[in-house]
Amino acid sequence: MTLLEEPAAATPEKEIGKARRRKEDARLITGRTTWTDNMVLPGMLHLAFVRSPVAHGKITNIDVSVAQQAPGVIAVLTGRDVADEQGSLPCAWPVTPDMVNPGHPSIAVDEVNHVGEAVAVIVARSKTAAQDAVELVDVDYDLLPVVLDMEEAVKAEADLCHDHTESNTSYHFVFDAGDAGTGADTEQAFADAEVVVSRRFVQQRLIPAFMEPRSVVVQPQGTTTRSGPRPRSRTSCG
Amino acid sequence: MTQINVRVDGASYSDDVEPRTLLVHYLREQLGKVGTVVGCDTSNCGACTVHLDGEAVKSCTVFAVQADGSEVTTIEGISSNGTLHPMQKAFHEMHGLQCGFCTPGMIMASIDLVNDNPDPSEDEVREGIEGNLCRCTGYQNIVRAVQQAAGEMNGRPAAADTLGAQS
């Protein structure tokens, strides 16, 4: 690409300290934007998820026979049905090289590790048919110990959140500037301080969770799966 | 199926609905009024707020049959001939939205609030919209937007130098 004209010589308007009106507001304040849930394709099927009511348990049996016969239901899939192909949600940023990732299957196979974990998925011709069939899936759980307190969880004798891991600790994130190599010796700084103030700080788990979560409408074509004509997947906000 | 007759955003509809159909699902799926959104399905978030005979309701907590004979106004019905409602204009000017998902419900709840209280204090705005959740903005600019719109809706134009979104 060739630059054909010199940039305008006029002094640009100052930007800093100036409120800017957004350009994308018109459709958002009048109810005319396209959310994923607005999109309808011919013959579109809908999913609904059967979710765990328990925080930790072994799945001993899932009976989907009644749900499979329900009106409008096309398929009912359990974690075991897709265990070999579903993989695990990857961690985009392993915080440390030795971080333990317990795995995050799309649908739980043998064990659930939190309330709300998906254990089966209904595919149906309408949203309501899918939701109705959720109530027809019968899941049996053997309850396992529940770990609720972070400080208890990292103790050596703690019950495990994930049975296949060796501890509940995923990684150690070094905040000490001396240990991390980004500053001087923290212990020495405290030792030399005229006054040392100790306080306990508790911070909530931080999860950016905008109101329309990541979502997508998919149009399968032939043997490959392609995104629909106007796929929408929101990946960042807030 | 039960037949209902409703007026939505000025148009009359006569439809058969299942008794369990929620008003929000009737609006979205039968009438195509997809400007009103479902945020939580549990009546926590208020994104689905519409006016039912002039009062703000969470349309996921109202059955469509309960709207029989009523007038429903959604976010799609408050501007006319390309002129934004003062509340819509204020949300834009005060930067009262980011992703925009809560905005339809936030605007409809705020209009009802100002109809009841023409000059709400900051605390009154915060209390008035406590049933509506926003996950992006932190509410500061939403409160400013509601107060600006309250002024305009009640003939109190704000002094230009007191306005300005804080972002």
User: Reading side by side through the largest sheet of chain A, how are the strands ordered?
Assistant: 1-5-3
| Unreliable spans of chain A | 226-238
Oligomer: heterodimer
Distance between the termini of chain A: 36 Å
- Largest interface pair: A-B, 24 and 38 residues
- Largest sheet report of chain A: 3 strands, antiparallel
Mean pLDDT metric of chain B: 93
Main sheet record of chain B: 5 strands, mixed
What is the succession of H and E elements of chain B?
EEHEEEHHHH
Distance between the termini of chain B: 50 Å
Q: Mean of the pLDDT scores of chain A?
A: 87
CATH class of chain A: Alpha Beta
Number of helices of chain A: 6
In CATH terms, what is the fold-level topology of chain A?
Answer: Aldehyde Oxidoreductase, domain 3
User: Share of helix among residues of chain B?
Assistant: 25-40%
Shape of chain B: globular
Structural class, from secondary structure content of chain A? Answer: alpha+beta
At the fourth level of CATH, the homologous superfamily of chain A is Aldehyde oxidase/xanthine dehydrogenase, a/b hammerhead
- Calculate Rg of chain B over CA atoms: 16 Å
Proportion of beta-strand residues of chain B: 5-15%
Keywords (chain B): 2Fe-2S, Iron, Iron-sulfur, Metal-binding, Oxidoreductase
Protein name (chain B): (2Fe-2S)-binding protein
Domain 2Fe-2S ferredoxin-type (chain B): 2-78
Organism (chain A): Blastococcus brunescens
